[in-house]
Design goal:
Blueprint lengths: L14 H6 L4 H18 L3 E4 L3 E4 L2 E4 L5 E4 L2 E5 L4 E4 L15 E3 L2 E4 L7 H18 L3
Helix pairs in contact: 2-3
Amino acid sequence: MAKDANKTVETAADVEAFLARVEPEERQADGRAVTALMARLSGEPPAMWGPSIIGFGRYHYRYDSGREGDSCRIGFSPRKAELVFYLAGLDDADFATLGKHRRGKGCLYVKRLSAIDMAVLEALIVKSLTYMDEAYPR
């Protein structure tokens, strides 16, 4: 792999087989619920990106530095400790009523879906999809 090659690329791995291996059981159930939600909102089927990210849709990016590649428009990873959502175009205020969570650069971390307001999560996903459609038209 070239030094600047993207490490997270779409694969042919089976999403359901991946979800069947997720632990603990609650994270597996949450992963299935998020998969269904993101598929419904995006209109895209789930696909594995790398070994552990479930992504929906695809876009091509090109930075001013010249680096470019493809990534999923939205996605998440049901990690053992928490769910990690990959969303873009969101402001601090968007998270005010979500519930228990933490954030990093471009990531939203949630321990369990039962600890957050699912209507707020849905609104975050919709806003991220709208941002991606504007920033990276299909």
